[in-house]
DNA sequence: ATAGATGATGTAATCGGTTACATGACACAG
DNA sequence: CTGTGTCATGTAACCGATTACATCATCTAT
């Protein structure tokens, strides 16, 4: 920068003013500075700027090991919002355990203005926000709301209830649930919603881990049961897809013999045959919203202590497709 | 940091030494410093460190508007490699045009040690590397190699040839191509490979844009042709999936009436029915490799000017699935 | 003609670390 | 007892920007 100032025959202060558009500068000076910047291919040093202004226009995102389309949709939404506000996004993904998540939080402290932490482990989320110290953190852990913590959460319980109620409404009675890994808050909450909505029907639960392969395995277990279920609520779409494929391989028809509902509405859900009924969550929108709110927190933190500590809840919407067509009408269509 | 030094009754130099593990420190001092850090919840200021050391342990990734699974796989690989080296990843995606890409490059200069630019526009890639100045840039633009530029590229031409040759080998003769948008290097190269491999068969080309919807539209066009093709090579898997769905809706059987080959081998390819034959590219591995090489470039740039300017080429592998089962055997199986 | 306002620019302190070099304590050999 | 080497630690310059404040020139009003 000194070089630029020298070449433009001005002081560093003027260069700074021109580059940031602050304060007053004459057109002649401005032009000379810009020319010098051009000639010298000058690039302001980010660290130095961050040091003087104690801001860095960067927000961190810490994600668990997410599955394909959920991940990309989320990042797309976040990236869009960040770009709109001139912020950068530091992404660190594939964090499994609480320790791992914590390490990621630590390594980002001091280099971001705020963080968004998605963690399916409640403990991790708590620790993370503790460790973050005075830096704003937005939680998207799918767990229960905590007072004083900004958060965006999916109504996993309500979504599960909606899915099961839909199955009951379309005439299903023996409704099974392929759940996510125990200890994962989202998995637990969806399982609780399933149980709550059964309305007297017997619960049939098999374990999965949100992966397509686990859905396949779980479906195979269901088929081996003496009294076969006539419907399955899978805790996410990928497991539902795995289940659909297992049913196909076993010659079990969907939706005639067994109905399937997923959760998330990833793009693949609409592409399956039969197309998958699911609880839609607008993933990109959640990502966008998360970034918007975090930026709000960052700015609020600078001005006053009026913090936004609301817990926003996103309610999934039922999207009906072929996989839960009423058995009778399915037969009719099949003609 | 001054506070920490004071509390630990040492100088800032000792604090720095303890925190970075450099130089010699007595155990007693180390412990007192660590305690003070703990008590004060001290977090080193990233900008300041970056200012003194002129490094920031961050690499930037600029991506075009990628489709779901390709995107997440790529990031997964990159994130893994970056974490292994203690680097952070700044991601900026969804850049369509050359201008957009360029703006992203500009906004990252000065805050990353190096960049990976994926741009389907040759011009953009060139400009990007120019604008980056002395910062290392790894190109993954799918275009032709340029001397003196580190790059990793997919052998799009060879992959397309492989796909078409496979179709010919399985007895197909009227082979159509659903290409990506004109001006996109990958689309152009794959189309060229298609044309080169036709071996005398008449070219049948319809336009797409890599989206599933465009594949669907293109397939509809193909079906409307007086002499219907008996095979389709789609420039990527998503278009192939769109085509498969269009064929299904039209009652055209795959692979019996028409065979389909895609490109990429995204996870969904194996889940479709019929499962999609495709040219596999190990996306995560490419991402990982890209980061590894960029880090190599960054380190080399610090030590000497021995730059790694190699252009690595990744060759797609044919993965045969149902969608191109030989017509005769397909009929047989169907029996 | 001169005080005072206005507007452009320069000076220098500051942000929070890193690190070359200086200093001081201590042990040991001669 | 003194010279020398070793090890732990402190001092202060420096990285490259921002910005409060000082300065100076020019213009206006009286």
From TrEMBL, chains A, B:
PANTHER family: HTH-TYPE TRANSCRIPTIONAL REPRESSOR CYTR (PTHR30146:SF151), LACI-RELATED TRANSCRIPTIONAL REPRESSOR (PTHR30146). Keywords: DNA-binding, Repressor, Transcription, Transcription regulation. The keyword Cell inner membrane does not apply. Coiled coil: none annotated. GO terms for molecular function: DNA-binding transcription factor activity; transcription cis-regulatory region binding. Residues 1-53 form the HTH lacI-type domain. The keyword Transcription applies. This is LacI family transcriptional regulator. It comes from the Bacteria. It comes from Brevundimonas intermedia. Pfam families: LacI (PF00356), Peripla_BP_3 (PF13377).
């Amino acid at each position: 920068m000194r070089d630029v100032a020298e070449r433009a025959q001005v002081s560093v202060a003027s260069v700074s003013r021109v580059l940031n558009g602050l304060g007053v500068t004459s057109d002649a000076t401005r032009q000379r500075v810009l020319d010098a910047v051009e000639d010298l291919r000058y690039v302001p040093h980010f660290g130095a700027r961050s040091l003087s202004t104690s801001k860095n226009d960067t927000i961190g995102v810490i994600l668990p090991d997410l599955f394909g389309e959920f991940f990309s949709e989320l990042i797309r939404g976040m990236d869009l919002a960040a770009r709109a506000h001139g912020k950068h996004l530091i992404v660190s993904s594939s964090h499994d355990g609480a320790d791992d998540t914590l390490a990621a939080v630590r390594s980002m402290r001091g280099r971001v203005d705020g963080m968004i932490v998605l963690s399916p482990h409640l403990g991790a989320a708590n620790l993370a926000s503790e460790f973050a110290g005075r830096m704003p953190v937005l939680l998207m852990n799918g767990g229960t709301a905590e007072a004083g913590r900004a958060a965006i959460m999916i109504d996993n319980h309500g979504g599960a209830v909606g899915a099961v109620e839909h199955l009951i409404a379309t005439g299903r009675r023996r409704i099974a649930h392929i759940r996510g890994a125990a200890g994962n808050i989202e998995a637990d909450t969806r399982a609780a919603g399933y149980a709550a909505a059964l309305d007297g029907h017997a619960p049939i639960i098999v374990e999965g881990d949100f992966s397509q392969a686990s859905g396949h395995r779980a479906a195979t277990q269901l088929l081996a049961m003496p009294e076969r279920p006539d419907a399955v609520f899978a805790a996410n779409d990928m497991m539902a897809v795995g289940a659909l494929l297992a049913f196909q391989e076993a010659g079990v028809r969907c939706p005639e013999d067994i109905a399937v509902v997923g959760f998330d509405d990833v793009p693949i859900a609409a592409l399956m045959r039969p197309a998958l009924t699911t609880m839609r969550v607008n993933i990109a929108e959640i990502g966008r919203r998360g970034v918007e709110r975090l930026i709000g927190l960052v700015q609020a933190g600078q001005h006053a202590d009026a913090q936004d500590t609301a817990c926003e809840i996103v309610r999934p919407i039922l999207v009906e497709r072929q996989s839960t067509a009423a058995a009778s009408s399915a037969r009719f269509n099949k003609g």
